[in-house]
Specification:
By secondary structure, the protein is α+β, with helices and mostly antiparallel strands. The protein is built from five helices and three strands; from the N terminus they run H-H-E-H-H-E-E-H. It starts with a helix and ends in a 15-residue tail after the last helix.
Length: 103
């Protein structure tokens, strides 16, 4: 993943509603959710949801496909893995992690 893609993904997730939408989609899994289901689950007006889904799609974190009259949104797990990989690459400079160390 390129640095600009990472910045774009992090910027998209740095907004409360978009983070909620993304987390909901991750929990839904590869089957994804229709836009109406997302709006209902998070109590978001459809116009507002459309804006946030567009931002998540632009950042490459969410994919969308038509299913009849609905649009199904799915998290892009490969993009999520790439983002996490980029953030943890060369973690700790080769030193053992201190995440579990007591202070």
């Amino acid at each position: 993943m390129e640095k600009q893609d990472v910045v774009s993904a992090l910027a998209a997730l740095a907004q409360e509603t978009r983070l909620d939408v993304f987390r909901l989609l991750v929990r839904a899994g590869p089957e994804g959710l229709a836009a109406g289901e997302i709006a209902e689950a998070l109590d978001i007006p459809s116009a507002t949801l459309s804006f946030h889904l567009k931002e998540l799609r632009s950042a490459g974190l969410v994919a969308c496909e038509r299913a009849g009259r609905s649009r199904i949104y799915r998290p892009d797990f490969a993009a999520m893995q790439s983002l996490l990989g980029y953030l943890t690459e060369s973690c700790c400079g080769g030193l053992p992690s201190r995440a579990g160390a007591k202070r």
